[in-house]
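Justification of resources, computational component.

The compute hours requested in this renewal are based largely on the per-chain cost of generating structure records like the one below. Each record pairs the submitted sequence with a full structure-token output. That output is archived, and it is also reused by downstream analysis tasks.
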Amino acid sequence: MQAVNMKWRNGVKKIVVVIGDAPPRDPEPGTGYTAASVAKAAYEVDPVSVYGIDTGHLSSTEFRTLVTSSSGTTANASSPDQVSDLVNNAINSELNKPFAWIQGPYVAKVGDSVDIDAAASHAVSGSLTSYEWDFNGDGVYDETANSPRITHTFTEEFSGVIGLRVTQSDGQAAVATTQVDITDDGDSTPRDQDNCPDVYNWGQSDFDNDGVGDECDPDPGFPTEDKPGVCVVGENCPPDSGAPSVQPTPDPSSGSVPTPAVVPEPTKAPTAAPTTTASRRSLSNTGPRAGRLTTLAVIGMLTGAAVLHYRRRVIS
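The structure output for this chain reads:
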């Protein structure tokens, strides 16, 4: 039971694998749990499938009933070496079954028809061939259909789960459950706590806090007059002239003349530096100083300075 009562995630397959060499006691000492109470709890969890691995004498009539009612199976392990393989077999067996799902939970009033949707159910192999419905949570299926959607009318109050069993082409089946509350007024608040026990009022609102809900209170205490300055457009608001508002002209003598906005000067594009092109003309022989002039020209080019043009007339 401890495993069944864990916080399971919705919409997933759930299995419990019981490994043992002796049958469980029914009822269990100290807790009073029975095979029937565990089976009911497993069914209501949407549900949990129980698998057994018998390493001695685990299997008993009560345990087999629990396993069968939860759509599980029991396997015998003659050696500890077989246990891990049998656990994997149990998991694979569950994964090969179809997926059953009921949209919910549902809350309705006695006598109202409820549209129940199981369209999220699907087959793992082939297709789904039948949908069996349990409308009172006793594990006995009351109606079989070929469609995932069904309409049912509950004729009396009920709080519990309803069940669905789907079967796929290869004969394998899976079960799903969801919570249903059928009440005298259509909401889920218990009658002894409901401030409108005969009227649907899911929110239980009570404006004047007199213990009688707004939905059934002849004098709920709502304000009957608007607060000062509050009006309803088109009913009691003063007429609107429709004239556009005019900004007052500032008086220079009042000293409140606004400072004109400063318009930033547009950024000027930088002026490109003149491109200097070195002459490729070979220097003429200028005598003994030709080497010095050539060196000066090269140094000027390397340092980025303007190219010096030497015009020297050599008189021989």
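Residues 163 and 177 are 4 Å apart (CA to CA). The longest strand covers residues 158-168.
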